[in-house]
Design a protein that fits this description.
This protein is an alpha/beta fold. It is 33% helix and 22% strand. It folds into three domains: 8-78, OB fold (Dihydrolipoamide Acetyltransferase, E2P), CATH 2.40.50; 84-246, P-loop containing nucleotide triphosphate hydrolases (Rossmann fold, 3-Layer(aba) Sandwich), CATH 3.40.50.300; 258-349, Probable gtpase engc, domain 3 (Ribonucleotide Reductase Protein R1, domain 1, Orthogonal Bundle), CATH 1.10.40.50. A five-stranded mixed β-barrel has the order 1-2-3-5-4. The longest helix has 47 residues, at 302-348.
């Protein structure tokens, strides 16, 4: 990049595919897209801007005829991220897809109104994704006004069992129950995101936290699967100085996490593993395994152990695929270097 070019720092505050809105420090919002030079430099999809990213932009007169007369910009660089939510890119590739960047607190939203709005497996998958991104999770059990007390207690207990070191809040976006306590989980100038499946009430929760109607609220189908209300990503400033990112409901969440991030979601297993005989114990049959001892004695539940192994296997599978891709790319690079050298020698003779 030319050092004399007047690049302006900004933050991505809205995203719909590869079309963005960025906010400059002076409060000016600009329609933006990445520059041709940016597209030439990036090597993977995860390097493209995502909601919450800090970027450097070049102000432009207009990006197209429809935007004539409006503030527009070209994104020239994504600045280093303090944190990033990622998932494996759907479609069988070995690339990651950035969901949101520079998030301080992730509200992992599930619902209490039945169906698949809450499952322990979904909770653990979401927590692992949050831990892998370097973000602090907070579990939010929404729609307590739609559930009987017995169900609330049962689901809350399951949430505590599967997230033993994470705050769990039972709330109702419609009645406001539990929201004052939830708002104490973050401070001014922090960025919070809402993460969860469709139909758990994220848009309703966003409106309740903001104190005004920001997003249309969607209905839930008879099979308890939500309809997508949010179809794009947007960052909203709140009255306390914090920012809240609303994300589309997640239909498919393939892990983009290493084995350490999985272990972070199972702190009791991490603690037990400190007493294993071998440092690289896989907890699947090695002698002197403290995790296996806890499983045999009943200190560790079989269900919890099975979920741990499932996520570890998935994380290891992703790592192997990424390693194979990197190895193949390195081999292609050296083959090209070899061809270039042979071609150069032929021209020299």
């Amino acid at each position: 990049m030319n050092a004399n070019t007047p690049f302006v720092p900004a933050r991505v505050v809205e995203q719909q595919h590869h079309y963005y809105t960025v906010a400059a420090p002076d409060g000016i919002h600009m329609a933006a897209r990445v520059s041709g030079a940016f597209e030439y430099r990036v090597a993977s999809r995860s390097e493209y801007p995502s909601i919450g990213d800090a970027v450097l932009v070049e102000r432009a007169k207009s990006l197209d005829s429809q935007a004539a007369g409006s503030n527009t910009a070209l994104i020239q660089q994504v600045l280093p991220r303090a944190s990033v939510l990622q998932r494996l890119n759907p479609g069988g590739s070995t690339e990651s897809q950035a969901i949101a960047a520079n998030v301080d607190v992730a509200l992992v939203v599930l619902a209490l109104d039945g169906g698949r709005a809450f499952t322990a497996g979904l909770l653990l998958r979401l927590l692992t994704t949050v831990y892998a991104g370097g973000i602090r999770p907070v579990v939010v059990l929404n729609k307590c006004d739609c559930a009987e007390e017995q169900i609330i207690q049962q689901v809350t207990s399951t949430a505590h069992e599967n997230a033993p070191e994470v705050s769990v809040h039972v709330v109702s976006a419609h009645t406001g129950a539990g929201l004052p306590g939830l708002c104490k989980e973050w401070s001014a100038n922090q960025t919070v995101c809402l993460l969860g499946a469709s139909g758990v009430g994220k848009s309703s929760l966003l409106n309740a936290l903001a104190g005004r109607q920001l997003e249309r609220e969607g209905a839930v189908r008879a099979d308890h699967r939500g309809r997508h209300t949010t179809t794009h990503k947007k960052l909203y400033p709140l009255a306390d100085g914090s920012s809240l990112i609303d994300l589309p409901g997640i239909r498919e969440l393939q892990l983009w996490a290493n084995e350490d991030a999985v272990t972070d979601s199972f702190p009791e297993i991490a603690e037990l593993s400190m007493d294993c005989r071998f440092d690289d114990c896989s907890h699947t049959g090695e002698p002197g395994c403290a995790v296996q001892d806890a499983l045999s004695s009943g200190m560790l539940s079989p269900e919890r152990y099975d979920r741990y192994l499932e996520l570890q296997r998935e994380a290891a599978y992703v790592r192997r695929r990424v390693d194979q891709r990197a190895q193949a790319e390195e081999q292609r690079r050296w083959k090209q270097i070899s061809r270039d050298q042979r071609s150069f020698r032929r021209r020299g003779t």
